[in-house]
Prior knowledge:
The chain is mainly beta. It has two domains: 45-186 and 274-343 and 410-768 and 816-845 and 906-976, TonB-dependent receptor, beta-barrel domain (Maltoporin, Chain A); 774-808, no CATH class. It is built from nine helices and 47 strands. Strand 19 and strand 20 form a beta hairpin. It starts with 14 loop residues before the first helix and ends with a strand. It holds the Pfam family Plug.
Amino acid sequence: xxxxxxxxxxxxxxxxxxxxxxxxxxxxxxxxxxxxxxxxxxxxxxxxxxxxxxxxxxxxxxxxxxxxxxxxxxxxxxxxxxxxxxxxxxxxxxxxxxxxxxxxxxxxxxxxxxxxxxxxxxxxxxxxxxxxxxxxxxxxxxxxxxxxxxxxxxxxxxxxxxxxxxxxxxxxxxxxxxxxxxxxxxxxxxxxxxxxxxxxxxxxxxxxxxxxxxxxxxxxxxxxxxxxxxxxxxxxxxxxxxxxxxxxxxxxxxxxxxxxxxxxxxxxxxxxxxxxxxxxxxxxxxxxxxxxxxxxxxxxxxxxxxxxxxxxxxxxxxxxxxxxxxxxxxxxxxxxxxxxxxxxxxxxxxxxxxxxxxxxxxxxxxxxxxxxxxxxxxxxxxxxxxxxxxxxxxxxxxxxxxxxxxxxxxxxxxxxxxxxxxxxxxxxxxxxxxxxxxxxxxxxxxxxxxxxxxxxxxxxxxxxxxxxxxxxxxxxxxxxxxxxxxxxxxxxxxxxxxxxxxxxxxxxxxxxxxxxxxxxxxxxxxxxxxxxxxxxxxxxxxxxxxxxxxxxxxxxxxxxxxxxxxxxxxxxxxxxxxxxxxxxxxxxxxxxxxxxxxxxxxxxxxxxxxxxxxxxxxxxxxxxxxxxxxxxxxxxxxxxxxxxxxxxxxxxxxxxxxxxxxxxxxxxxxxxxxxxxxxxxxxxxxxxxxxxxxxxxxxxxxxxxxxxxxxxxxxxxxxxxxxxxxxxxxxxxxxxxxxxxxxxxxxxxxxxxxxxxxxxxxxxxxxxxxxxxxxxxxxxxxxxxxxxxxxxxxxxxxxxxxxxxxxxxxxxxxxxxxxxxxxxxxxxxxxxxxxxxxxxxxxxxxxxxxxxxxxxxxxxxxxxxxxxxxxxxxxxxxxxxxxxxxxxxxxxxxxxxxxxxxxxxxxxxxxxxxxxxxxxxxxxxxxxxxxxxxxxxxxxxxxxxxxxxxxxxxxxxxxxxxxxxxxxxxxxxxxxx
Length: 977
């Protein structure tokens, strides 16, 4: 059966993936050979500090062209990377407009240190917010994956490098490009299905009845007590949506009374979420002559979120100039500025005001406007509806809260100003000898404004509150590179030597006040009571020296070597410097006569590389540590007297974490370049891990940093680019990329380390789940069962079961990391029509859905929403089920266990675009060169098994009440003058 194919054990392949794979396997067709044009296979790609020809380059590099980025309706470029490159994993855990996707290249490179790649913009590292880079300004993206490709960036490129090249003006007539799009967004995945009001009242009656029976009350009396307590008892729901005519709507038989009908059905998700508008405008001017070129762009984006009072607005501009001042001197400047405003109500944690969680947690029989006994709205003196804050609601139903009323009065605002400036001087001393001096600065000014109003909601208890946070991040990089490039007959040599310096300076202050004397005043000056004031700063310096040599003979045999020495201020002086290197080679076999004589390969290149890189990005949780070798302190106010407490132990012996990378690759092209492909094997070993080692709390420190342990990532990558049909009027391209990943911890300081729901152990992965094993439900009494493993008096292992989760044995339950991931792209061009589609997928891995457990209680969380799965709960008539019997007595069955581990396998139709370019002769009279209209969709369809959960979750495979992914439909117009 196609939709249920199995690979190894229980890995579900979505039917749509099989469909796309079927398309990719269609035999290529030719109808007009004389009109065929070869694909350009000697592609020039951007690499570290320069460019190279891809089919002879010794390193592993993949490129994404501008047409796959420019028109995607994404606010952040990281969200356009998924499925585009083999070996690159981009996970968009949050759909909040302006949120950044987590990107990993060839696995997880560290346990406690950062695994983020380095972003390089126009040749120099970029430290600004990635939201500041407009997709419309991007010319291409190169992904450097192995040591040869990224080693020249040293420690900063230890986890791979993503090089973004922005557009430049081109020689010839000046051009004006205009792109405007408008659209709308909604949830990409529907939320979990819940029970109806009628079902809820009958189910909760059952839970009350069973709770009374558990307290030794006779069943008949318990039934009457449940009917009496359903609305107004100590565990009652607090409201009767059936009206005064049905004071006790559920009878002693557990069924709604005849004629009882809910008078309202207020879906909280509907009032807290919406169909949101999206508007984007991009305008750019470009041109050039023999000696200079320019590019200037303006951009505007207004992306409303699906949650009310959320969204992202951005204004951006970029100016790029290049000029040949003298025959021996080229100069250039690249300046960009972005102002952004993000409206971001809480949506990524378990707090009670998380707008996503609130919409899911409150059942629809709790109204968001106050109701009379007959179901009509209660009105104020002005005849307006009155928001219902649910003071009568149980605490589990978020008592005294109504975000529909309070959020429009509150502020959850993040403002950012991003400035990035780059400049260079390029000297040509001899045709083969050049020197380039570059400078790059990134300045990010952030201002957070969080205000809780004093009029409505929880803020009334403290008269409202306000928090202001401001931070300033300044970083700059200076680079001086000398290159020598010379051909001697069939010999070619390229030499590079350089020096680089990086400086990072971060400062932040924050303060809060409460007790506003007047409403609608948002600033701290309007509040009376000072709550707190804090501030801190961090600095980092990195000095580097680098060199590279490349040699090739007869355009067939290529070798390269590089070395870079980095000195980081994170380490003590005696361990500050680390030296890292790479060697690589490639053989362009297709240039050999015996391969040419086969008349089969248009290109055949073998390559191999090996090298080591350092990592100094030490982390404690989500916080970066800039003074790793020093003691750190926390300061306290003790009744006005200062106090100091050590918060971190000194670790002067700490040194660089090292990544050793092996890459083996084969690149080929056949059938007149109609089929191109690339197969690579990688092995990435991380040693001397910068490990945040836990300590016993009794020692006074939670952890300390040390170089311990080793980690290895291995896998295969496969990319295939095909053109099944290509004629004068019609072209069809199908591309596929696949990558496998095996992450393994090979050495730890002790046998195992427990970290929440994960277990670090030798032979396991960094994201292995360690949970009690769910056995099911006891068919005789409806109690939950978990597995126990004990040792008897004879030393024999004995397995059993328990209904007390605290007695259950935790076991390894699989990894969050996928076994296979990739993307399928197809594009069709017919005359003036164009159509493209991108399908992304992952196979294998698991997700622990803790969001789902919040609506899966046994009845002890009275007033909290219930999943429709509760309808299959245990009863004497339904003994064989996976849902325990209901009771107001807590049984902890929703504790994290294998019961709530789900397959992470999914496929998503990430993007579909269809466009039509009007014939140019229609607009020649008004000077238009191109006019295209298009319609596109993002996150259109998602194929997965566990309905209600968005399968695109955090890398560690645990849900956390996050903002859902958005499905976006846009219509746009592109014009070129």
